[in-house]
Amino acid sequence: KFAHLSTLALAPSMEQLSIPNLPGYRKAPTRPNRGGNFPRKQIWSKSHGVAIADEMVPNVAELMRSGSAASIPLATQPKIKHAGKRYLSQGGVVLKFFGYFKEAVYESQIENYRIRQCEVNYFLEDDTISVCEQKVENSGVPQGTFAKRQRIALNEADEKFYELEDIKLGGTVEVYGRSLFVTDCNESTRRYLRDVIGRPEEELRPVAGEEDVYTTMRAEFMSRETGRDDTVAHNIRKNPMKEFAEAQLGNTVNNETRRGFLEYDRKVLRLDCIWDDRDSLYGDLQKFTLQYYLADDTMELLTVVGPNAGRDPFKKMVKRGKLAIDRDDPLGPCWHWKNFQIGTVIDVYAKKLLIVSADSNTYNFYESKGMPLDPPLQLEMEEPVVAVRELPPYNGFGSEEDSLASCVGSLIPTIPTKKLGENKTMRFRAKMESRNPEDVDRVFTISFFLQDNTVQIHEPPKRNSGIVGGSFLSRMKLRTAEGLITQEYFYVGAEIQLAGHAFILVDADEGTLRHMENQPGIFEYSNIRNVVEVYRLSLGEPAGSGELAEVFAAHDPDGTGFVSLRNFKSILMKYQCSYYYGGPPEQAVLTVCRKLGNKTAVEYGKFVAVLLDPSLLG
Fold first, then answer.
1. Residue 227 has pLDDT above 70, yes or no
2. For residue 53, what are the contacts with CB-CB under 8 A and spacing of at least 6?
């Protein structure tokens, strides 16, 4: 019974048979006699102190043909014989070969193929190969590493890989479907193949390669455009870090420049120069700063750009370096601080720069060296012409602030800032001054908004007038020949031109009159003191003789002490001090009535008294 149960436990179920036999899909079966422990064979051994893997790798061709999961090419490189000894003897030894491969070019009238130059690096320690394509400027093709370091198969079916004897000058190397034609190698590789491997000299001669049409045409074009000969070495200056690394490896370093570094480190001479090019067309007088670095006798030229110069802000004209005195002889003597003096002309790439002054530290340096500089040169500078900006007149379209925003400031207009005043409205009743009979009886309400100095005109509808009432003028800012219309233009009795029409203000509401009385500095005819002083010029003598009081009493038969506003105006006309005779406007009459009466009539006793003694106003 128990044997039968154990057999059933070990027998696989149908679900287990459907699961693939791959790592991670099944649990390892438990075996009573082994306890579930499956140790692997030790594959590492040491040879001359180097760890070497001795595990045999299955045949790659058979695995690829089988189609099983083990055919995945992970760690399928064959074992290298005597890997430890080769690592110790040939570790870091790399042979470099030069070659190219052809790439077909379609839909081109000038070429059928393109030559792409490559470098083949062969590592002797493990017979691996890396292929790098030489980068071409502005080629538009991804270049660089073509094949990473690895063993490249010579024949996959027989599991053979490229070795050194398979790479020969004039031969080909197949790399992932590309046929690399080997043409040459470097000198160290040629010497190794000749002395160590023993190849004859005939096999080590460079082989002529092919050239494509486009590369040849491009080289000729660049030679014509730039005058550069690609076959000449330009001896680019080494990176300082490379010089330091070479010095650590034992290379002799020239320490002549260290003396200047130790003595003059961070010491700079600053000379002010000018370039006068005003004789040429569109020439100008430009300023420069010459900075001379004493540590290594190099100099740089900086541009001094003034405000509103109209020039691009390129600060550096000549980068730091040594400048030859004769620009036709670049290998000749260079400028030194001993050659500088106030008034010296320096030829900087066909620009004649004149030294005109220097800073205080530069003067002190030359004094300490026994070579004092001359005083600064006094140049006659032309006074810049300051253009006066004239604002164009307002054309009536849009608001004036929007129009001014496009004339002042940046080329990108912004929303103008509004300056808001009091949130009050002045309202007046007005009549139109017109010769047309139909306009004589028209009545308007003019509103002036103190918040933004805008004017609005409304005409109340009037039955059977033949004129449609309503909005006569929308709210907007108005101007006169003197400027923008403000609140000073509005008072009772004023004649004002609004939107091409003449209006006479005949009355104002209570809030408007109180606002005008609270602003006596703006509205002079709402100031009772100013009004009394004006009336004293014409009524002072009648008031002193008692004649004026008798005239007022004649218009007050009931003896109330008040005269109506109409009678007060008639008395003013009698003495020719009303508005029709050049006297104060109707606003002055309203002020006297409000201050020296009951807003509808004038207390003439008070009026005569203040004419005789203005101090009674308090």
1. no
2. 43, 44, 79
